[in-house]
Design goal:
The chain is an alpha/beta fold and 416 residues long. The chain is built from 10 helices and 19 strands. The protein is globular and about 65 Å long.
């Protein structure tokens, strides 16, 4: 990889980047691989990277029907936190947060990680009790968490309105100081370049149309660019997990919902942290470009369309204006949507399946982005060894039979 100083960067800009070296190869599909990862988002690229780096599986391919990071990875708000209630969730999300802290250095790529802190607001005594319980559970699991009174919230996040005379007064909040945001496309590009350097083939504009098998064993995938033989297929396709599983004859307990967000015109730095409210279903942070990044909960209807409904926007903006009155004078610039797969217990599926050699990582609901490195790390371990490690074991499909659910609706109630 060449090193560029500021003058060479300027020359490249005027030249239209004609001599700019690609970050990864545009690989052509080979006839066969030791493993194929379906899905070129953050989770899929992380899976391929850790398969190659930690398990020595370099004859593998990542297959993406569009462009890298063009699905849910490019349609989220890039918030990172690990303050989930149950031990199983805390383990995987805190594992991910630990990896996030050094991921930029590991990949030698600036992922713009900013540990600016995440506030979760409480608006009534019942909610406050539940959130204080979560703080104590977090501390027992080694997750940094604390409870703030309204005056402390105001000191940490000056723009917030802590008046008693709004519909949902703020009576307290949890704070995870190590939480924050990063840059989603930079994460995907960093993983892609690192995986490519280890020999992984990254194949874009290649849609999987069927999962091939014989006698209960995966034998390959059919794609729009031909058939590829492989004994292992790792499915990491976010909103379309159930569609891919159906190709393998597997029915999953998943619903797919649209999830939308929007951004404002760029402003000078005004929002110092991430702030979210489960009760009124809204959250906000500020990007490095100055845009206010705003989101809410999922749309209630089932759909594969990458857009949301106006009533969600109206509801979240009404709530946001009360919490942050200055927003009433800010113009909103653009809106987008993604598709999230939601499991009955609001926790993911990381599992092998009855079809030998076919593995599924999905059902992350609204919590997928924050788990990216931990998810890829644990899933690579499962694909390589055919058994889940201690972090992934609670999230196999067996829990829907045994009843050992990891019910995280409270910690994942607002999309982020």
């Amino acid at each position: 990889m060449k090193n560029y100083n500021i003058f060479s960067l300027i020359r490249q800009g005027f030249a239209g980047h004609k001599d700019w070296p690609p970050a990864w190869r545009e690989a052509e599909p080979k006839a066969a691989y030791d493993a194929v990862v379906i899905g070129g988002g953050g989770h899929g690229l992380a899976t391929a990277y850790y398969l190659a780096k930690l398990h020595g599986m370099t004859n593998i391919a990542v297959i993406e029907k569009g462009w890298l990071g063009g699905g849910n990875s490019g349609r989220n708000t890039a918030i990172v936190r690990s303050n989930y209630l149950f031990d199983e969730s805390a383990a995987i999300y805190n594992h991910a947060l630990t990896l996030w802290k050094t991921l930029g250095q590991e990949l030698n790529y600036n992922i713009m990680m900013s540990h600016r802190g995440v506030l979760n607001l409480a608006h009534d005594e019942g909610e406050a009790r539940q959130m204080k319980r979560r703080v104590e559970a977090n501390r027992l699991n080694g997750v940094d968490a604390e409870w703030l009174e309204p005056e402390d919230i105001k000191a940490f996040c000056p723009p917030i309105n802590i008046s008693d005379h709004i519909r949902y007064p703020v009576i307290g909040a949890t704070l995870q100081r190590s939480g924050g945001v990063n840059r989603h496309d930079a994460v995907c590009w960093g993983y892609a370049r690192a995986a490519d350097n280890l020999g992984v083939d990254i194949i874009q504009q290649c849609e999987v149309t069927d999962i091939l098998s014989e006698n209960g064993q995966v034998t390959g995938v059919e794609t729009t660019r031909g058939k590829i033989k492989t004994p292992k297929v790792a499915c990491v396709t976010a909103g379309h997990t159930s569609v891919m599983a159906k190709m393998a004859g597997i029915r999953l307990p998943i619903e797919s919902h649209p999830l939308q967000a929007l951004v404002s015109e760029p402003l000078k730095p005004v929002m110092p942290c991430v702030c979210m409210s489960n009760a009124v279903h809204v959250y906000m942070s500020q990007s490095d470009k100055g845009e206010l990044v705003i989101g809410a909960g999922i749309d209630p209807y089932l759909s594969y369309t990458q857009r949301g409904s106006m009533d969600i926007i109206e509801h979240q903006m009404a709530s946001l204006v009360e919490l942050f009155p200055f927003v009433s004078r800010v113009r909103m610039m653009r809106q987008w949507g993604g598709i999230v797969d939601v499991c009955p217990d609001a926790s993911p599926i990381i599992t092998k399946t009855p079809l030998k050699g076919f593995y599924i990582n999905g059902g992350w609901g609204t919590g997928g982005w924050k788990a990216t490195p931990g998810s890829g790390h644990a899933f690579a371990d499962l694909v390589a060894n055919d058994e889940p490690n201690a972090i992934a074991a609670p999230f196999t499909m067996e829990r829907f039979v045994t009843g050992a659910l990891v019910a995280e609706h409270g910690a994942a109630a607002v999309a982020h």
